[in-house]
Amino acid sequence: AQKITQTQPGMFVQEKEAVTLDCTYDTSDPSYGLFWYKQPSSGEMIFLIYQGSYDQQNATEGRYSLNFQKARKSANLVISASQLGDSAMYFCAMREGMRGGGADGLTFGKGTHLIIQP
Amino acid sequence: DADVTQTPRNRITKTGKRIMLECSQTKGHDRMYWYRQDPGLGLRLIYYSFDVKDINKGEISDGYSVSRQAQAKFSLSLESAIPNQTALYFCATSDPGDSHSYEQYFGPGTRLTVT
């Protein structure tokens, strides 16, 4: 079974609108972290936001917020007031075993290609 | 200067050739990783290293080997390259002591083509 599922291969959004990118995850580990990365056409991976499984509040970083619904195992990324420069691939990723031990590294979803239209 | 650098940035090689991709970091992190990205897919973990004496296989280690020469250097080798190893390769670092987030810092990537 896939550990990270991103169900939207591509999205078109009008500039200045809010965007929600979906991510669901699968783990039996009680201690995990969820990440979102942006990959523009130039190819680099840009860290956007992080949510720990024990964090009580949803993470926010500027225009980015993470809608964390633990019971549903979802960690959707919300981008407020989208800009043309937000056009990119967006990846949701998870690290299990955050409190020591176990394998390291991130497990990534297949990504969502977001295109912001003027 | 970039914190995580990768050389070369682009490489075209022939089937059967040995090739090494290099990664250097100035962040002082103990943990380093190699990932590959295929078109339309997310990144997949090849190898990771907790320190110079601790190297571990990731999800897709077959056909690859690594060497952790120093805390700052982590190399990925393809002993005998094959066309399905054509991909974008990323090196990354992290340090749990640096922040609670375990954020991974990625290099710019190496685009490898095997013909």
Work out the helix count of chain A.
0
Structural class of chain B: mainly beta
Radius of gyration of chain A: 14 Å
Oligomer: heterodimer
Give the distance, in angstroms, between the N- and C-terminal Cα atoms of chain A: 38 Å
* Helix percentage range of chain B: under 10%
Number of strands of chain B: 11
Q: How does the major sheet of chain B shape up?
A: 7 strands, mixed
Distance between the termini of chain B: 33 Å
Shape of chain A: globular
Model regions low in confidence, pLDDT < 50 over at least 5 residues of chain A: none
Shape of chain B: globular
Pair of chains with the largest interface and how many residues each contributes: A-B, 23 and 28 residues
Averaging pLDDT over every residue of chain B, what do you get? 92
* Helix-strand string of chain B: EEEEEEEEEEE
Number of strands of chain A: 12
Strand content of chain B: over 45%
- Tell me, rounded to a whole number, the average pLDDT of chain A: 92
Number of helices of chain B: 0
Provide the low-confidence segments of chain B as ranges: none
Structural class of chain A: mainly beta
